[in-house]
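Ticket #324: bound-state structure for acetyl coenzyme *A.
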Amino acid sequence: MKGSRILGTGSALPRRIVTNAELAERVDTSDQWIVERTGIRQRHIAEADETTATLAIGAARAALADAGVDASTIGLIVLATATPDNTFPATATKVQAALGCNGCVAFDVAAVCSGFLYALSVADSLLKTGMARRALVIGAETFSRILDWEDRTTCVLFGDGAGAVVLEASSDDAAGPDAPGILAARLHADGAHHDLLYVDGGPSTTQTVGHLRMRGPEVFRHAVTNLSSVLREVLEEANVSVDQIDWVVPHQANARILDATAKKLGIAPEKVIVTVDRHANTSAASVPLALDTARRDGRIKPGDLIMLEAMGGGFTWGASLIRL
Ligand code: ACO
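RESOLUTION: The complex was predicted; output attached.
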């Protein structure tokens, strides 16, 4: 069976940066509390003319340029988001229209913070069937639009942004553990934990968009347990030891979740890519945004073995082992 590999990455962030100090002027919080409990120092917040689609388009264009391929060669767009521009159509179709690759397959995936991991696996599977040869896989969010800005326990944690990768089907002769590609992936969901992390609105219930609600400490505990377990599953599936991993690119929810998960698995902290200090939690955008950041600053290099992992509302969680 053929596999697929990442040809290029890109990201986009809203122009406006909001520091913890600025937030402390609006809600009863402090820079010290936010930094100590989360590692977050600032986040980008979308202005009126910036939406999930505009950020996704920016990230997609950057990924196409990085890959050196034309949008007309894209046969599939999978966009992960929990904050689409409209209830329908899929934000992926707005990206498609802007890029001018009309006619290709385009749809959204809703798995909240794990959305990019889900989208990557779905795109990889579709490329393996031969449905398309090249795909854009995007994570894009404007969580600022679903935050309750009066709730200090949640509004300080999130930011807006987008990240994207160009994925290409690789030929059989390029397969093997040292060849670039997606080597192994595992996805999970457990709907029993709905009330720990959800949005209290939607078209079919309240006919409103609603606000994010979270029981943070309980989510924290589940995150460390579920992420450690799925990372072990993927390592086992790929027959790879923790020491062989060059980089872990985790969902950027909270620096303490990243530290606790790495510690539980015996992963050296210097191998963990951290962007939560600058971007906060950008949900489905956080993994591709962190991947692109670390590629562009020169840390992640071609040939590196990289573990991507995320957990979010649902709960949903997953991990992918890729060779760049
Ligand atoms: N500023 C100041 N004080 C605050 C704030 C704030 N922004 N928010 C809460 N507090 C107070 C609380 O009211 C509480 O006060 P009390 O002791 O007088 O009752 C105190 O700080 C401690 O609150 P906790 O909720 O126990 O703090 P905790 O150390 O658990 O940190 C946090 C909270 C940051 C939300 C943490 O639980 C967390 O990160 N959880 C993971 C959730 C997450 O990241 N979810 C994202 C989506 S899922 C995912 O990505 C994994």
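RESOLUTION NOTES: Residues 29, 33, 37-38, 113, 152-153, 156-157, 197, 214, 216-217, 219-220, 223, 251, 253-254, 257, 281, 311-312 surround acetyl coenzyme *A (CB under 6 Å).
TICKET STATUS: resolved
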